[in-house]
Amino acid sequence: MEKKTYEVKTLDEVYELIKEDMGLEPDQVDIEVLEKKGLFKTKLLVEVSVKKDPVKVGEEYLKEILKANNIKGIVEKKIRDNLIYYNINAGEDNGYLIGRRSRYLIALQALVSTAIYNVTKSTDLNVIVDVAEYKQKRIDYLESLASQHARRVKETKRPIALSNLNSYERKIIHDKVASLKGVTTHSEGEGKDRHLIIEPTHE
């Protein structure tokens, strides 16, 4: 990351130097006052560093993980509003990156989210890490499953239990069922035994 140090009288001078010397706008850099000099005529020793692009940070982090595990893959990215979406394509290693019950994929997303937060200190950015669009395909499947079971519950008036789902998958089904009439959901159990119940509403 590029850093420069300036000795100035006011911060306004720093803003001008950022534009003239670095060709950047003030919102593209971090400014830190290192030292104040002088008793009557104060001078400021200021360090200016270029802000890291959070999208680039996440992309490079994922590439380093692939490299460390000797996996050849491509990292694609999409940005929409405050959402950063990364999709990894690693051929035969896609299954390994996803892991059983999405274990490794969930860990990848947590690691990348933390890496980006450490740079931006912002909680406004949402980060999604996917592998071969697995999450999107899984979302489509789970929403279809939720609709099928919801119809069954409404027809039979009997609840249906769904197990072997992680918290992320349970939320997808919960959100889908919440958009349907005549059915509702709740979770029961703890740890590995936690499961989702789809049941008729009592109207």
The percent of residues in helical segments reads 40-55%
Tell me the distance between the termini.
61 Å
CATH class of the largest domain: Alpha Beta
Q: Return the average pLDDT rounded to an integer.
A: 88
**CATH superfamily membership of the largest domain:** K homology (KH) domain
Query: At the third CATH level, what is the topology name of the largest domain?
Result: GMP Synthetase, Chain A, domain 3
Number of helices: 6
**Proportion of strand residues:** 25-35%
Strand-and-helix sequence, N→C? EHEEHEEHHEHEHEE
C-alpha Rg, in Å?
A: 25 Å
Spatial strand arrangement across the major sheet: 1-3-2
For the sheet with most strands, the description reads: 3 strands, antiparallel
Produce a short descriptive summary:
By secondary structure, the protein is of the alpha+beta class. The chain has helices spanning 11-21, 54-68, 94-98, 103-120, 134-156, 167-178; strands at 3-8, 29-37, 43-50, 74-80, 83-89, 126-131, 160-162, 183-188, 195-200.
